[in-house]
Structures are given as C-alpha cells and as structure tokens.
Amino acid sequence: MATPAPQERRFLGIGWKFPLQVTPNGKIAQARAEQRVEESILLILATARGERPMLPDFGCGIHDLVFSENNAGTIALVVHMVREALVKYEARVDVLDVLAESTADSPNLLLIRVNYRIRATNAIGNLVYPFYITEGH
C-alpha cells in the first residue's frame, strides 16, 4: 500500500520564486504554499507605486520616502504605508503587526518587521524588510 503524499496546499499558490532563480536542471525555480505568501509580501514591499505599467497603483508607497529624515513621523508613515499595501494587495494574510525601527549605528536603515497570519491555515509568519532612507545625506 502506497503512502499518501503530504497534503499540498495549492490554495496558497505556486509560482516563480522571487527573486527569479533557475534550478540546476535549467527550469525556473518555484515557490509553494507559505513560502509563496512570504515572497508575495516581499514583492509588494519592494515594488514602488507606478513601477508596473499595467498596475500603476500596485506596490508600497515607502519608496517615496527614500530621502526623508529618519524621525518618528517618517517611521509612522512607513508603518502606515506598509500596512495599507499589505491589506490591499495580499488577501491571503491578516496583518497582525507592522513595526519599523532604526539603530544608532545605521541611522539610514529602517528595519520593517511584519507579523502576519495566513488566513487559510492560521500559520503565523514574520519577516524583516530592510529599507534605506536619507541616502542623499
């Protein structure tokens, strides 16, 4: 009697890995299930609004803040923009918390921490996205 295959969670999606990768046998690498959701979140955060010609509103507005001062107002705006983009473009998750912080040794780097729950499985995920501000100073 054959052992049943592990349950696939196709409802979470299968697609190309982000960033794009090629497998050793020359095929495009794929991401599945929870990994696909995490990569989707990273893609949303890494895409500036207006960057995609057919989807001009897709992405996150934080890229408009690249030359902003690193202060509480900018950090609050980053947190708001990240939450807004994820709620709008990633329907598979509930955004639990978004935090942004910088350290004294890297004042131009904001670490954006996103905690989320995948709705279909109740799996909790988190990621940290590095965002550089005040690069012009």
Core attributes:
23% helix, Nuclear Transport Factor 2, Chain: A, single chain, three-stranded antiparallel beta sheet, disordered N terminus, 2 helices, globular, two-stranded antiparallel ribbon, alpha+beta, 137 residues
Give structural notes.
The chain has about 140 residues and is of the alpha+beta class. It has one domain (about 10-130): Nuclear Transport Factor 2, Chain: A. It has two helices and five strands, in the order E-E-H-H-E-E-E. The strands form two sheets. It has a three-stranded antiparallel sheet with strand order 3-4-5, covered by helices on one side. A hairpin with a 5-residue loop joins strand 4 and strand 5. The radius of gyration is 17 Å and the shape is globular. About 15% of the residues are buried. The model is unreliable at about 1-5 (pLDDT under 50).
Q: List the secondary-structure elements in sequence, H or E.
A: EEHHEEE
Beta-strand content estimate: 25-35%
Q: How do the strands line up in the largest sheet?
A: 3-4-5
CATH fold title: Nuclear Transport Factor 2, Chain: A
Number of helices: 2
The beta-strand count equals 5
Distance between the termini: 67 Å
Helix content class: 10-25%
Low-pLDDT stretches: 1-6
Q: At the first level of CATH, what is the class? A: Alpha Beta
**Major pleated sheet:** 3 strands, antiparallel
Shape: globular
Number of domains: 1
CATH architecture verdict: Roll
Structural class: alpha+beta
Estimate the mean pLDDT confidence. 85
Evaluate the radius of gyration.
Answer: 17 Å
